[in-house]
């Protein structure tokens, strides 16, 4: 499989759907819709929504049934980036090679744009559950699971620990927990969303959860490696930010080489979790390999 | 009806449920759970969740079926207060007589606490829809409606217009639209949530929507009147903030006396919208009268 080509095709479908779902820039109040579109349509990899589609595929579901939910999860991811970049948080000026939201629209609108992206994310998840091919009870289950993954047991909790770890210092256990909450939780929620809305069995869900958990860890480790050893022209952000901010990372604690080994092991585990699936899970397998070699 | 006593009893039930739903302060990361509890359990009037319960009552439903959703809506209201108070937004130091979240926990944690409250709000709405007495499809409908009311067509959009109106100047039409989005949208969503989850008819929903819309307008007008003529020992915040921030308000545009007349007319309309309901809507009627005389 030419993973980059397949991912690009999935990203194209997701971008088209997002463009349809997002309010137009001329709809008043225009500035908030401009800010929402600026951050949501800024050329991300669309890895999380692609995992929603990939998990649906893996259990025999269709992209059509889960595309709305995939967009909802991507908007929730986008909100977290906008808020993480704020001056009071990571205070980043660049994201995906462009000035961050608060640099363009000011802090107040950036905060509100994040709030609106999170809210619209849940609206799309609710709409996904009302599709004729989905059981409404499954739709509600997905919303509750994504909310838990995005809340203080997941992304928000991980971000708090990430900020506070600079004050507290850290251990290998702590960095693993931060990565789990900050990144892996939404990866798990992404594959589970695609699978649940496609009527997956409990066994399939358990396997996909293991996959998502290890994939999310690998993704965050390689993210931190790229922050040290990446090419800014490809990553769209300058290197060395984590060290300057004294963030807890695998390469920071264990060194680059050992961090690469951790990522490799996590990817092997992720692929191993898919053993009971046939070729329908090939996209998910290729996504795991991609994590190891990605340059952006 | 002794409205204050009935509201206090509803607030007690809501506070108890919130206390059960909110993560404990000792659950790590503790600081975010402290911040969430600080803002969510700070002695608000609980008017919006009480309206959820009141609307359920009005259409013959039970409090038990809607209490979880009522808590979800209250958390979404709380998130909006935490973010509105931020330095980049209204920059307020006091809320309900206590220092605002960012004053106590710092800006980063306050932003994240707001994010977590919004997320937990949707989690509770999803849980509300999975109750045995509720149809899952109605649960999804409520989530979508609350999301629209909280998003750029509602609260977020109103807040953006509120901030920008200071730059743009304003007209009576603009202030009406800001009030509609910033405040009335969530009032409408509150009564509709209670009614939908209780199996209300389309006719009942339409009447309750009219009620909520006019009630929300009256509430925002009296809020702005209290900002000028209120007693800080009762409102929990100092007066004159709106004028200092050059906010668009009814008393600012029309004067105190005319603003009081607008509020009175809106309350009459709200009560009139309930004509087809019997005594089961007495709480909603009394809530409308309370808006006119409230001192906090």
Describe the 3D structure.
The structure is a homodimer of 296-residue chains. The two termini of chain A are 19 Å apart. The first copy, chain A, contains 15 helices and two strands. In chain A, 55% of the residues are buried. The longest helix of chain A has 28 residues, at 202-229. The first copy, chain A, has helices at residues 3-21, 30-40, 47-58, 63-84, 101-105, 107-129, 136-150, 155-168, 172-196, 202-229, 232-235, 241-244, 250-254, 256-272, 282-293; strands at 94-95, 98-99. In chain A, strands 1-2 form a two-stranded antiparallel ribbon. Chain A has one domain: Farnesyl Diphosphate Synthase, CATH 1.10.600.10. Chains A and B meet through helix 2, helix 6, helix 7 and helix 8 of A and helix 2, helix 6, helix 7 and helix 8 of B.
Tally the helices of chain A. Answer: 15
Shape of chain A: globular
Compute the separation of the termini of chain A in Å.
19 Å
CATH architecture of chain A: Orthogonal Bundle
Mean pLDDT of chain A: 95
Q: Tell me the structural class of chain A.
A: mainly alpha
Overall number of structural domains of chain A: 1
- Biggest sheet of chain A: strands side by side, in what order? 1-2
- The percentage of residues in β strands of chain A lies in under 5%
Oligomer class: homodimer
Low-pLDDT ranges of chain A:
none
**Helix content class of chain A:** over 70%
Radius of gyration of chain A: 18 Å
Q: How is the CATH topology of chain A named?
A: Farnesyl Diphosphate Synthase
Largest sheet of chain A: 2 strands, antiparallel
Sequence of secondary-structure elements of chain A? HHHHEEHHHHHHHHHHH
Q: Which protein chains make the most extensive interface, counting residues with beta carbons within 8 Å of the other chain's beta carbons?
A: A-B, 52 and 52 residues
For CATH, the homologous superfamily of chain A is named as Farnesyl Diphosphate Synthase
DSSP, total strands of chain A: 2
CATH class of chain A: Mainly Alpha
């Amino acid at each position: 499989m030419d993973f980059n080509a397949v991912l690009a095709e999935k990203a194209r479908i997701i971008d088209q759907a997002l463009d349809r779902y997002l309010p137009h820039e001329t709809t008043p109040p225009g500035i908030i819709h401009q800010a929402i579109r600026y951050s949501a349509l800024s050329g991300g990899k669309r890895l999380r929504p692609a995992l929603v589609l990939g998990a649906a595929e893996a259990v025999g579901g269709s992209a059509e049934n889960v595309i709305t939910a995939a967009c909802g999860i991507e908007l929730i991811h986008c909100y977290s980036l906008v808020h993480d970049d704020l001056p009071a948080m990571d205070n980043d000026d660049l994201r995906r090679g462009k000035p961050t939201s608060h640099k363009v629209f000011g802090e107040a609108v950036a905060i509100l744009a994040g709030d609106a992206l999170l809210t619209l994310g849940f609206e799309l998840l609710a709409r996904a559950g009302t599709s004729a091919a989905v059981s409404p009870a499954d739709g509600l289950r997905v919303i509750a699971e994504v909310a838990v993954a995005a809340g203080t047991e997941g992304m928000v909790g991980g971000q708090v620990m990430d900020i506070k770890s600079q004050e507290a210092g850290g251990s290998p256990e702590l960095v693993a927990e931060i990565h789990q909450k900050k990144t892996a939780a939404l990866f798990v929620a992404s594959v589970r969303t695609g699978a649940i809305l496609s009527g997956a069995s409990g066994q399939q869900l358990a396997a996909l959860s293991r996959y998502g958990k290890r994939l999310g860890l690998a993704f965050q480790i390689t993210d931190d490696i790229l922050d040290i050893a990446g090419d800014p022209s490809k990553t769209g952000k300058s290197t060395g930010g984590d060290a300057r901010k004294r963030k807890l990372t695998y390469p920071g604690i264990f060194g680059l080489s050992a961090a690469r080994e951790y990522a490799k092991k996590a990817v092997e585990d992720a692929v191993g979790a898919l053993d009971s699936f046939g070729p329908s899970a090939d996209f998910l397998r290729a996504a795991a390999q991609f994590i190891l070699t990605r340059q952006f």
